[in-house]
């Protein structure tokens, strides 16, 4: 109801909306189950010094009550609610930065009585950023396939970063449930009762907790991590789009080739190689200096991506697909050129610059597609 509560608007009941938000609650429930199943054996001691891991009832299919974590984990993470911990990975720094921003947005929307915008902001953070992306980014560390951004493979380092990701997963989830509580009171309270004890929180109900504020989350200095994760997300999305377009099974191993880009791109490829391999089911990652073999292309900024097609797809069908994509991108490029040609002196500078940037992106994408088509000729 709050999502429809825009100013000056009559709310018409729609069963389709009920279905959509039922799916949202189900998504939140499943994300909580994922967090609890992958943090078994982890908990922080309560401020009073007693272990909090055995409180509450387990969610369905998540196993029995969780014992307190090992002494090693408690050494790595402070007691209590764990606000002043230092995240070990870029994924953690990114989600904490996003949590601070959405908390600030929520505070502003409450002050403006814009409960529709509040619902939209929290929905997008919960669904897209936490449930979809952070859960995905956490998996390599939770499953022990990588250490912090691939710089060490020592067992103690792997354990350290795994414990850090577990902590952040629970910490952000607990804050998210508090943010959502005014909008979804019963579901969030039920889920919170299972999450809070693992963070050493002794309150018996989410209602006893203070509503999150942006100042609660120390996200200063995380700009570089945000930029790196946005790059990582773009690469993952591009490769998954290629899989979907070409009908390649998600479980089939593929190769990924990189070309061009700058020093920052090269550093990010090296930094996230293990996580890319895990999430994208890659059997190899290589950097090219010359022409690639027959491959499906994608572009992320100045960086060119190629998925070799040998043994994966019908090359004739891929030629047809590329021809259609080239025609589509050429049309968008022409639209952008026409729009720039019509701009007069009264058009704001930022609008002109935005359109120029869009034209540059279409031009780069068209050139990459035409080059790929030429290789398949």
Please identify the top-level CATH class of the largest domain. Mainly Alpha
The whole-angstrom Rg is 24 Å
Oligomerization? single chain
Note the main sheet: 4 strands, mixed
Outline: globular
Indicate the proportion of strand residues: 5-15%
**Any guess at the CATH architecture of the largest domain?**
Orthogonal Bundle
The order of strands across the largest sheet is 2-1-4-3
Low-confidence stretches: 48-58, 60-83, 147-152
Number of strands: 4
The SSE order reads HHHHHHHEHHEEEHH
The SS-based structural class is alpha+beta
CATH superfamily of the largest domain: Isoleucyl-tRNA Synthetase, Domain 1
Mean pLDDT: 82
Helix content: 55-70%
Describe the structure.
This protein has 377 residues and is of the alpha+beta class. The protein folds into three domains: 2-221, Isoleucyl-tRNA Synthetase, Domain 1, CATH 1.10.730.10; 238-312, hypothetical protein PF0899 fold (2-Layer Sandwich); 314-377, Helix Hairpins (Orthogonal Bundle). The protein has helices spanning 15-37, 71-76, 90-111, 115-142, 155-180, 185-195, 223-246, 263-271, 273-280, 315-342, 349-375; strands at 254-260, 282-287, 295-300, 303-308. It has a four-stranded mixed beta sheet with strand order 2-1-4-3, sandwiched between helices. Strand 3 (295-300) and strand 4 form a beta hairpin. The protein is globular and about 65 Å long. The termini are far apart. The model is unreliable at 48-58, 60-83 and 147-152 (pLDDT under 50).
